[in-house]
Amino acid sequence: MKKVFENFIYQSIYQVLLIILPIITIPIISDTLGPTGVGTFNYVYSITNYFILFIGLGLANYGVREIAQVRESKQKLSQKFWELQIFNFVISTAVLTLFFIITSYLKYSNYYLILSLAVFGYMLDITWFYSGIEEFKMITTANGIVKLIGFLLIVTLIHDKSDLGKYILIQSSNILLSQLILWFFIRNKIFFIRVRLREVFAHFLPALSYFIGKLAVTLYTNLNKTLLGVLATITAVGYYTNSLQLVIIVVALMGSLDTVLMPKMSHLQANKKEDEMIELLTKVIHLEIFVTIPAMFGILATNQKLIGWFFGEKFSYIEKIVPFFAPLVIIIPLGTAIMRQYLIPMKQIKQYNFSVILGAFLGVVINILLIPQIGIWGAVIATLISELMVTGIRVSELMKKTTFRFSIHQILKYFVSGLVMLIIIELFSSSMRSSPVTTLIQMTVGLIVYMAATFILKANPIVDMIKFLRKKI
Fold it and tell me: Structure pTM?
């Protein structure tokens, strides 16, 4: 039972790595490639994502659940793995073929050719298997090594706008290499079993039900970049993408806990321990809110001093955009936690799909209506409304079907502490210039103030959560 706590530590270390490395690489990429280069990369990758989307259909989530339910038996585990992987291989081969045909006619076809490595990497993706058996150490180690290699290559090889192709090659190769490493170690976990095609394609409809949600998520998260590139400018894509970077970094850190707990929740559900599921979910969600509220206020407090040195003067315009994205630091992790720790383990796929389909529909409509009129601000509005709608539906579903309730009293204390933190940071750093040192000072002051405020208000759940995880997990 202690395995989940250990997995959380491994995932957290990896997510911290994902935070530290971009702090170095984002300024390099932003400065060398500029808004147009950053926009071009994200535009072509947004197109590529539509093909990646179809690989394995909904295997990323469906596979985790299926593997988690049979992990006690090596025979059943091996059977299930080969059923799912052959299914993935058949679908992926068709997708990869279409990718080569279609992208050969598109603008930037040379970049799409390089990105085919990423598509092939997702074709070989078996992280769902390791997640299902709760072997997160293997995933984080492989990904961590590859990320460090990619980081070194970016630092040494990316020097000016002409290096965009090299940057795309590094990113694509990272995805492929991280998957290849995992295949070297899987032979110790399973053995080969011949499976019949009937058993393989029996997974089609269940995986498809997960795919519908995956498709909708891609539409409202990825389509913004595509439509900005088509209806506005490539530069607008660069501004939009970098504006979201700060939010993405925090959301990624929160995702480590959700990723680790999903197979655990599936296992609890399979053993009819739903009360324990809700108890754990309640504590985890409040811990996440405890972290994301100050993260939101932190983004608001550091924005003006951060953008100049982090993204460069070419991206000064996004100082206006970033504050509008700050609430997503709270909204997205909350919705993701409910999805991964409740809806999927409880097999409530219809409810999951409904939330993302509605979010996707609103996002597509708002993007198409507003981007031609107000450019990047149309994408900003679409993103906020879509994410708020998705999370709102999931919260409503959770509260309707379970005994889960928010501790409004505690959350208000977090909010007050965060507001105090914001005010003190603003007063303390108002005369400082934009620099890494200033941002570090702001973060340090903010952390001290927030922890002190929540301690005074008796609203700090970290110690209690650690004790709970060690006891229960």
Answer: 0.74
